[in-house]
Design a protein that fits this description.
With 368 residues, this protein is an alpha/beta fold. The chain has 16 helices and eight strands.
Length: 368
């Protein structure tokens, strides 16, 4: 039994942090379900930018859609949803057998809306309706504006993957927004079963401080932050407020570990996966990490519900001059900016390919 299957038996869901048409067409994604216990996947603007930029798999579809007068975001979302619908259908049996707790795929709203609550609410509703798949999350960032959009979207029955969370404070704010949306649904006599996950990014913490802390603290901050967040998560699930919602039929908003590929070439390529083994959570991994863990990963212990050694380690970082709260805000801001850049790059690739692939003499609509 490979280590991925052992993680699955522990009670952790393994999702792939990637989606491309080639993965679908080649049968590779189906093989990951069968061999590596993959039960869902996530996507983001960077993933789609790389897929469109570095392959020709989408060229025919871009040419055909551009010939129909489609451009910019509208063209991109058609491409993305064609892939994600296929993936959602592949995971649909898992979604059904887990009563909606697993088997999800994710599509992100435009990152340019990260600080626009009203725009995010409209986009989330539109994309959810366009997708026509019950097991497709709409990704909304956990920014200040995003929190309001999360509550409203949950109230409207739109499943939400809260993205760009970097701390237990940010996680708890997102969880509170989710719970407010559920409470409002109950008050309105609506079904409280609306899916959601809360995604905490891990490896970016260690990248941010790699030149600022002693060697003994190298690659330890992200894991400590995760352990602190896991404690907050388990305490929330045991709280009277959540127990009341669960008794009324609400679904648990699961904690998801994101950015779990090792960035430091000196560290083990399975570092974060091994450290983040925990029941009732999800780990979404890049392909290389998924394959590496199946090959030589080790499942030895499960994360302690009380956070284990998180607080002493975080104290060491504070003594080294790292302000975790300030850094969490910085990382969220930089993450939103990075996704916005990838989004603009993605639209530029679509525009350039639309022109390059157009038949001679054809007019291509400029993106609005």
């Amino acid at each position: 039994m490979n280590a991925n299957l052992r993680l699955h038996e522990l009670g952790q869901s393994l999702w792939l942090d990637n989606i491309t048409r080639e993965l679908l067409d080649s049968g590779t994604l189906r093989r990951y379900l069968q061999d590596f216990a993959v039960t869902g996947l996530t996507s983001n603007p960077t993933i789609f930018d790389q897929a469109l930029r570095n392959t020709t798999v989408y060229d025919a579809a871009i040419r055909d859609k551009a010939a129909q007068g489609k451009a910019g975001e509208a063209l991109f979302f058609e491409l993305a949803l064609e892939d994600l619908r296929r993936a959602a259908d592949l995971f649909r049996p898992i979604y059904a057998s887990s009563a909606g707790m697993d088997g999800w795929v994710s599509l992100e709203v435009s990152p340019l809306l990260a600080h626009d609550a009203a725009g995010t609410i409209r986009a989330a509703a539109h994309l959810h309706a366009l997708a026509q798949r019950a097991n497709l999350f709409i990704k909304i960032p956990g920014t200040q504006a995003g929190l309001g959009a999360i509550e409203e979207s949950i109230f409207a029955g739109v499943p939400v993957n809260v993205t760009l969370l970097f701390s237990h404070e940010q996680y708890l704010a997102a969880a509170a927004a989710y719970m407010r949306g559920i409470e409002r649904r109950l008050g309105a006599g609506l079904d409280p079963r609306v899916g959601s996950v809360a995604s905490i990014f891990i490896s970016r913490w260690d990248v941010a401080v790699k030149d600022r802390v002693p060697a003994a603290l190298s690659n330890r901050l992200g894991i400590a932050v995760a352990r602190r967040a896991y404690r907050a998560y388990r305490e929330l699930l045991d709280s009277p407020a959540w127990r009341k919602l669960a008794a009324a039929g609400a679904m648990q908003q699961r904690l998801l570990w994101a950015s779990t590929g090792t960035k430091d070439p000196r560290a083990a390529d399975t570092l974060y996966v091994e450290a983040l083994a925990a029941p009732q959570t999800i780990n979404t991994m890049p392909e290389k990490t998924l394959q590496a863990f199946a090959d030589h990963g080790v499942v030895s212990t499960s994360m302690a519900p009380d956070g284990g050694d998180a607080e002493p380690i975080l104290s060491h970082f504070a003594q080294a001059g790292i302000d975790a709260a300030a850094l969490a805000s910085q990382l969220q801001r930089e993450g939103a900016e990075s996704f916005s850049k990838s989004w603009n790059d993605l639209l530029a690739v679509i525009a350039s390919k639309s022109i390059a692939l157009a038949p001679a003499g054809a007019k291509v609509q400029a993106p609005s």
